[in-house]
Fold each of these.
Amino acid sequence: MKELRYYQANCINELGKEIKNGTQRIILQAPVGAGKTFLVTEILRLLAAPSLATAHRKELLDQMQAEVENNNIAHLVQVKSIQMIARQDDHYAVQIIVVDECHRTEAESYKELIQKHPNAIVIGLTATPQRLDGKSLMKADGGTYDKIIKVATVKELARYNFIMLPDVYSSAAAIDLKGIKTIAGDYSKKDLDDRFNTPKLCGDIVKHYKKLAKGRQSLVFAIGVSHANSLRERFEQEGIHAKCVFGTHTKEARDEIIGDFRNKEFPVLINVDLCTEGWDYPGLECVILACPTKSRVKYIQAVGRCMRPAPGKQRPVILDHGGCVYRHGLPEDDWDDVPRERGGGGEPLVKRCPVCELVQAVARRTCAKCGHSFFVNDKEYKEVDEDLVLIQGGAKKKVKAVRKPKNDTSYALRVNMRPRADGCVEWVGPFIQKRPILKTPDGKQVYARNAVFAECGTMPLGPFDAIRMTCQNVKCVAIHHMEKRDLRAIAS
């Protein structure tokens, strides 16, 4: 039998307190890879009350039914699709209702089910606690739920290797969305198809796949059927076998195509809003966003498809051709740190380094990759090419050339981190003339090649960006961007 992870146990304790305090409708916010299905079945086993678990997709229901049977609670829990519940119009004698992917709770079928059971405890599960149109799910804002419990954060799951953070590439130039209508809170598919379904743009998508993710099992999110077919034809023209899967296909046809993709019989699968919630393929190595979206829910659900770990899997890649990362932030950004409704304006969420082209959190004072100080007059750097550029991650190759001013005397002491199997982080460079990189308060020298850190994070230190770590219970600080003549290590 599976054992609860520490954050799952904490969640159960917090949920128990909320139920005892009379909170009736609760969301468990769990990112991809948090084990939300196992978590909720364990909750139902502990509560030991007649329950109903529902969702809108067969994949979600199959996962729930499997966990219910593994946990030996099939006599307590009914697993039914919301469509079946709506057709039967029955009253279920249940005390607990579980709604998987509960950001869809405001649909009439879910609201009717909850209204028929006014005394039942409602537990919602989702990675994205917001409606698809951007509106709140909370009762205070006209929604259904009273409380959100955060099960874990994306960064927390990545720290313990429960998920893999991706390298994210996006267009350096702004995506032209002027004149695109908004329907039901998102861009009009017809207008997007008219604007982006062109030979040049489809060719750019294939070009960057070949450059940055060639040979990887890749999932493409297209605008519509016509756009998907155009992309498939362009991939085939370049000698890359690709297939499309649509909701209009029969179940047998969909299962056959997706099964062949999982078996690696072809590398590129193109879909239209189909392979999102509940679609689980840990071997997926790349997600290509070929469709802009205003919905952060859709964005997070899409990029999460490639973040599950698998044996031998390389660090996943996201190719963002819709400018989504500039609007919605990086995949690991905490949900509450990104404004709910940006409307295309407001302060930017990420910025791009003029030296190495890494696009990163806007709050950073120095570049996470090359150490460039953002206090330098960035206008002195002139871009010489337009391309997809690295947003976040550990890629080593340079993807865009820049011209550096002659009077720049800064020295970039690059800090490379490597995760270890025991959950720690190892500093694997740099080495400067065999000088010690760290020095503890008691004078002990710690060399970079021997330093292993249990914790790491960033902290501002004057005009520099320092990294504070713990090494054998001794806190140390290393400056990694200083003037050449001042390069040195200091103690905290």
Note: The chain has three domains: 6-152, 159-392, 410-491.
Amino acid sequence: MLGSHWRTHFHQKQAREGSRQTLADGTAASGLTVSLLRAWIDQPNPMGLPVELQNLVILAYADQGDYSFFHGSAPIKAGIERIPDECALRQQALPTPEHWTKAVGRMASLFGKVQAQVLNAANLTRLVDDLSLLTEPLRVPLRALASGLGKRLTALGVKDGQAPRLVTANAALALAERVLAAGGSDRAAALAEAEVLTSDAAMAAILAKAQALEEAIRTADWPLFEAVWRLDDQRRNEAARISERVIEVLTADEHAISLKPALDEQRAKALRLLSEVPPPPQPPRPPSPPPSPSSRVILENRAEGLDAAAADAVLGRVRQTMTENPDAKLDIEWRILKGGAD
């Protein structure tokens, strides 16, 4: 620990002399800069510290006072190896402890990025830098994913709000846009305040695979699926099962059903089904031949809507007639119906 010596020393110098200075290029500047702190290190007597130790002193002072380093208007990362003299130190507005705790937790649960728990300017800068690097590449693929998935679900008749995957994709897009719309250190609070409408696990899966998911939906073999779903022969039941599974895959969150492998599996089933050659339809049964001229009809009748007792009576009469006429031949056609009107 460097203690409070340098903090006290710098505060005293700033109180006595202010922070106006002339930079190496001859221009005047105001505000706390690295070059000014280096000069104060050697006052009242030169310390003879190497640059790396000077940087360590400056970094410790910045950490104690919640200062961040800026080059012009852009924040920069400072390290022991190098801190440009023209960098300015500005005190950072910190988020509330509640926002900080939630932002640190969401960096871990949504992005898999562990952050320091202590709230100070240096840790805030690191979190914001990491968050910016993670969210900036996501905005375009998340927009395309939410749009493409929404259109596909609409075409399949899935109503708004019935697809957790789409709810999660829209929430992930809203989170990324909210974070990127915030400025600088405010991005930590934006992350903390963003809505998670399904679950952290669902959001994490979408954020991690946004580009791959968008591509999987965009490049899926939808013409093949649609051709299968139009089948109306004996394959239609299997086609309906493929349709139901595709809808299930599209609506479920990614952490529940991995979209790309599941769509590939259904595509393989659709290809096999479409390649099956349906058997030719059964030819119509030829009509019964007319009786020969030498034949004589000894019993003929037609009845409909018979219950069990009436049918038994008819069959009994047929049986009796056949018994009484051993050389007789029977032509028979029947059907039994279940249900319907009496």
Note: The mean pLDDT is 87.
Amino acid sequence: MGAAHPGHRRREPHLGQSEIGWKAVKDMSQEAAKLLEPIFDEHKGRNGRLSVQTDPRFHRDATKLADQAEEFHNLARNIVVKIPATKTGLEAIEDATSRGVSINVTVSFSVPQAVQAAEAIERGLKAREAAGHDTSEMGPVVTIMVGRLDDWLKHVVARDGIFIDPSALDWAGIAAMKRAYQIFQERGCTAPACSQPAFRNVNQWAEFVGGDVVVSPPFKWQKIIADSDYTTRERIARFRRPALPRRAGAHPDFVRAYEPDGMTIEEFEGSDPPARHCASSWPPTPDLDALVRDVIVPAPLTRSPRQPGFCWPCTRFAGQLLFACAVAQANVRPATKSAIEPATPSGHLTPGRKTPCCASR
């Protein structure tokens, strides 16, 4: 975790702020992946993989995405790399898969994106097998951001003034996930469908019970589910198009997300949910650059006496938060809180509390 420490100015003075930030990400990813290795081994790779995000600034360059994915893949044997389901991303997914990288398809909100991503993975696997390599231990997954599709359709309904039972909109993402799952099963896709942590209600877990899927609820939702008296039963096969009123069910945004041919590959990046998500995912990259810059080139005279700033404990705290976020994205559902406690900040480095250094300012 020491990658962002000011000592890097002495050990590797040639590194810029972005390089130091990404080195910190790689160092923390290796530490997080190490924590998950026992689970990875116990479940023979079905669980215990750590998701690492590629640099969003490479979103227009398939080669750079694939190269970085391969770099992350080589950090640990249980890493799965996130690449977006865009036209450029699909090229990178196929390329990286052919190099032996396990992919977690991201920025995916729709059935057509999921289907095209699964096909890109299949092409990459076949190319790797044709080159004489074993693919049996690879673990790709294809994400559908179920909750964020619901969020977008709620925005559309409010924007367009559609009169609708609001509870119906909580089923749109579930329907898309089940539609993709059905297609994956029919076509024998290697990569399972995956519901990512954009959780909005417990049905986004309960409706997928019994399927060959990956569901990664945030810890908050894991605890709610584990502490409940709910009896699990298989529901993945209970397949139906959501009972949306005609005006909403026929709305172009829902049709594009639900029908396998609802969008062309060229439309993936420009469609509204991915564009909205990409806009929100960009800030952390410059924020990380700024945090590193404040450490390696401090400007104390510009701070007010009570402004926390970024002392080393603060920077380490930020690193621990990044570390915790990385572990939280791993494809594993711990049975108890203790299973993920090593990844959370401890002692005085508790979210919402100042470090001793900051508290004195």
Note: Confidence is low (pLDDT under 50) at residues 1-10, 303-318, 320-361.
